[in-house]
Input
Amino acid sequence: MHVAIAGAHGKVARLLTRLLTERGDEVTGLVRDPAHVADVGGDGARAVVLDLESADAVEVAGALRGADAVVFAAGAGPGSGAARKDTVDRAAAVLLADAAEAAGVRDYLLISSYGVDAVRDGAAPPELDEVFVAYLRAKLAAEQELLARAAAGRLHVTVLRPGGLTDEAPAGRVHLDASVERGSVPRADVAAVCRELLDVAATVPLGGRVLELVGGAEPVELAVARLAAHDGGATG
Ligand SMILES: NC(=O)c1ccc[n+]([C@@H]2O[C@H](COP(=O)([O-])OP(=O)(O)OC[C@H]3O[C@@H](n4cnc5c(N)ncnc54)[C@H](OP(=O)(O)O)[C@@H]3O)[C@@H](O)[C@H]2O)c1
Output
């Protein structure tokens, strides 16, 4: 499998890259900072420098050629304001979809966020600060754009909504389903779930799946296999 990862110097992305390259998969890692090329190369990926807030779809498509799947693992990150939530968490995710379509890449795995339903239809819950609302709105808008493309048969899309990310050691056990309780999850378990979802996407038609993820009791492989069996049955 050849996977292209946007935001390849991010914490989840680097864990995922290592999981993939250690078993022999090919990874193209898109980074915006040339100083990150060596780290991503050390993870076993081919690094390509592209700023997803200024590149166009043709440039990004060029970096994706030959990939079977793309993963959006970028994020404006803590400390950024509402404007960059929109330019990274929404617009860069959509740019990656434009580029994937142009490059003929079939599968798109979007790392979104738990809680986006709280801002659906313009809601702004008073207990959430303004920047967090902007972040959730950007993630929700990206999901909606990608799911529309999935519904139109233009891309195979899987949306993964992890809860609060931690840097704890992987537990290897998760709660992954269409709807789960609020909670946290180690980034290493998110990476393991992504790897399994990429495997499943290659064999089962997952046309617009939305999955929430927190720490739990079910081994990662079994959780993904259970959902894949359900989808395989549902879609014939
Ligand atoms: N933190 C949480 O609790 C939480 C919860 C749910 C979901 N998530 C989502 O999970 C995903 C992974 O999180 P993480 O903690 O692994 O992320 P992270 O470590 O913050 O990494 C994000 C990466 O995105 C890159 N990036 C930012 N702007 C970019 C641009 N214009 N072009 C290209 N790359 C750009 C950053 O590069 P630079 O280093 O150059 O800035 C960084 O390497 C993110 O989408 C995040 O929103 C987070």
Summary: The helical segments are 11-22, 37-42, 57-64, 82-103, 130-151, 187-201, 220-235. The CA atoms of residues 150 and 208 lie 6 Å apart.
